[in-house]
Amino acid sequence: MALDSRSLQWATLAHKALPQRALVTLLQAFDDPGAILAAPAAQLARHVPADVVAAVAAPVDDNALTATQRWIDDPQHHVIAWDDGDYPRALLDIGHAPPVLFYIGSRVLLNRPALAIVGSRHATPQGRTNAREFARALAAANLTIVSGLALGIDAAAHEGALGTEASTLAVIGTGPDRVYPARNRELAQQIAQAGGLLSEFLPGTPPRKENFPRRNRLISGLARGVLVVEATLSSGSLITARWAGEQGREVFAIPGSIHSPFAKGCHKLIREGAKLVETAQDVLDELGLGSPSPTTRASKTAAAAPESELLSMMGHDPVTIDALIERTGAPAEAIAAGLVRLELDALVCALPGGYWQRQ
Amino acid sequence: MALDSRSLQWATLAHKALPQRALVTLLQAFDDPGAILAAPAAQLARHVPADVVAAVAAPVDDNALTATQRWIDDPQHHVIAWDDGDYPRALLDIGHAPPVLFYIGSRVLLNRPALAIVGSRHATPQGRTNAREFARALAAANLTIVSGLALGIDAAAHEGALGTEASTLAVIGTGPDRVYPARNRELAQQIAQAGGLLSEFLPGTPPRKENFPRRNRLISGLARGVLVVEATLSSGSLITARWAGEQGREVFAIPGSIHSPFAKGCHKLIREGAKLVETAQDVLDELGLGSPSPTTRASKTAAAAPESELLSMMGHDPVTIDALIERTGAPAEAIAAGLVRLELDALVCALPGGYWQRQ
Questions:
Q1: Going by fewer Cβ within 10 Å, which terminus of chain B is more open, N or C?
Q2: How do residues B146-159 score in pLDDT, each as one tens digit?
Q3: Is residue B291 very low, low, confident or very high in pLDDT (cuts 50, 70, 90)?
Q4: Which residue of B317, B345, B355, B357 is the best one to mutate when testing the A interface, meaning the one whose CB has the most A CBs within 10 A?
Q5: Interface of A with B in 310-329 (CB under 8 A)
Q6: Closest to B260 (Cα-Cα) out of B118, B123, B359, B356
């Protein structure tokens, strides 16, 4: 198949997975991906070792090229190579930046200040709520939220940022034409429309176990910092946090109960030096950014209605009405009435012994 | 009233609250508390400034002395001064060590390796359970548990350590003949019998607001480290942690939900450098001490019965049976049966939407 488009030439070069230094050398020598692919072996060999020459010369699977060409033909789809002005500058300093990104979405999102929010797939309801709320507040403070489109925390983080101007980027571990997991198909479509969906893998690449940890370096690399919301000790988000550390990005973690397996990964990170954060403001302060936008503050004020305040004062352990009176300073009747309304909304439940608990 | 007992002489000197350096100078010069009290002003003035001379010469309230003498007359009561071999060596390096301790209990506890466990008076049930369990495990690992006999975390820590050989020390902020708060009277008696009750204040001293933060320096000073279990941002346990820092003791804190006001003090400490701990073993590791005793390990194994394991895998957020299957690897029927048994014991409750939660 003829490599007549520059996008396809870049995609073909990327497919060959040359060592970054060799690729840079060849681009400096030949100035053009098409020229590299067309160059005789002897000419290549003047610049790079024999194994690289062999890799460039090796034939490329025609099916893969056809699938890639078909993907490129869609005007909504972008092949963004190193020489593209929209290539994320944040990735250029991480080492092993992919030569080509396959991208669906708004190009402007690729070079905005960003924060990654990641965590366990099997998250708790509270963890997902936290992810959503941190994402919403941080996006309102003008940070594009980057995550990995996994179930659980990742999905909640994307959802929280959708609808804000800063929006959200999903870095996926399959080709840009695949959605994994299938359950997030609708979310992926929303992100492609209102945010950006980004992959370093050729169209057609199925989910492969080894590609996900590798993909994580882009999640951290695109961001000023990585916030881990909930993570078991085996969560892939700990890999993202490690990449962040190596790339000089900040690492933030939300603590939780010592009895929750979903807090253990976060606690491990905090022990290793991650910043413990309780609020979006903590993240902004660490990054040296300002307060959340007035919108965020306003929505916070709006949320301070009696029931919401009651809910936030309840914490997450069983609590008595007496304790709530003490914490809120509100009279007993107001507390009791508020608890009943919250129970009707299924936001709290009554426990034996006069205790109440959030749910 | 004649100061004919050495204990009463020490108590009288302590009552005068001389600057530590002046008291040391006088003891070096006169070699004896009775000799200091009997010395003419001119002789004292050769060693210490005029305000100290005036303080030594000032008359002491006879009622206070009578109350003190009466307290001393009880053979169970000990006045332990700097020159007493049982004076806690750990206190000698904190600066401002009280010249005299009023003590009820076993003298041997005053010079054992110790750990302080402190926290909010208005703690959550989970916080109190954590305090009790950490205290039990650390006492089983041979650390005497020091705390302040307050309601909430302090009381739970004392309770957890009672009955172990390492036992517990209560450092109180009133005279040794007073119990504050009154609700802890029975606990104070148990501690006086099986552990030790310690005060730097003269018998008869009522609870005074300013004495409690000052007392906290002894809690941290007696210990190798201070573990804060739950603390609001206004909790006095943060003062104890600050003393610990100044005295070169370790500070440990247990994290919790970012929505719990009782975790905020702990999170503040962790951000300031306290060690985040999830288990008693974490504390022992940081202190360079060994594993908990075999008893502790055995009881841990015994606790790994199916229901207990289920309970621990539930964490503290609502959870589905599916998630429990995934976390435990147990079949659905076993999980369902376990949940029903736990519900009968009022250890879990069913929530709308197929969720279960610990209570």
A1: N
A2: 999 999 999 999 99
A3: low
A4: B317
A5: 312-313, 315-319, 323, 326-327
A6: B123
Residue of chain A whose Cα is closest to the Cα of B356: A359
Contacts of B245 (CB under 8 A, 6+ apart): B251, B273
Asked whether the predicted pLDDT for residue A219 surpasses 70, the reply is: yes
Report whether pLDDT(A297) > 70: no
Partners of residue B351 on adjacent β-strands: B355
Query: Judged by CB atoms within 8 Å, which residues 35-94 of B form the interface with A?
Result: none
Asked if A261 is an interface residue toward chain B (Cβ–Cβ < 8 A), one would say: yes
Note whether A278 and B258 are within 8 A (CB): yes
CB burial of residue B299 (10 Å; 0-12, 13-18, 19+):
middle
Q: Tokens 């003047």 — which residue?
A: A46
Min Cα distance A307 → chain B (Å) is 15
Kindly report the pTM of this predicted structure: 0.79
User: What is the model's pLDDT at position A298?
Assistant: 36
* pLDDT over 60 at A296, yes or no: no
Structure tokens at A324: 């709530």
**Cα B8 from Cα B10, distance rounded (Å):** 5
For B216-232, write each residue's pLDDT tens digit.
Answer: 999 999 999 999 999 99
A156 close to A135: Cβ distance less than 8 angstroms: yes
